[in-house]
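Table 4 source record.
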Amino acid sequence: MTWPATDRYDIEPAPDGLALVQDLLNTLSAGKPRETDLLLERADAQAWLDAVRQGRDPAQDQQPIHLDGDDVRHLRAFRDGLREWLADAAADAEDQPDGERGTLPGMTFDATLRLTPDGTVRVEPAGSGWQAVVSLILIEMLHAQQADNWRRLKVCRSERCRVTFFDRSRNNSGVWHDVRKCGHPANLRAYRARRRTQEQSDSQH
């Protein structure tokens, strides 16, 4: 699979269908330097959607989804809200390590349960336009939660970056998508700020 939004940040995609959720979140203008927002214009949004749906299991994802201007606006708002929640949840987890993530506004979207001839039950997206895209995203979120992978999808702590990454650390403690690119510079800035504060304090005594 190709994940056009995530690939441009040189980030390893999340496992399985969670990579689709990650790619949606990474359509936002982020990184250093900032990349283009892939959901800003209808043509770009449609091209992104068509790209990420290529190669998916046709039994799960059969119907074409076409986006108009209103669809793109709604999809962009959904993406921004989910991404902000992920970022806030990570900050809350640092303050309260044993606490749960915050809450999202309640939403209801359709999906279809299909029983295949071999007895497999499939959850398939329903609806049209942006609602079909969100239905597909929520299905992948559900699968990731069942696999206990959802909690590892995070937004890089660096305000100069903010890309969405999958935390592969053993204890799920990662906060930077790349420690060398984002962690070390941020820690150096924090160290210098503390040092200036200490020097100012010392000079007043």
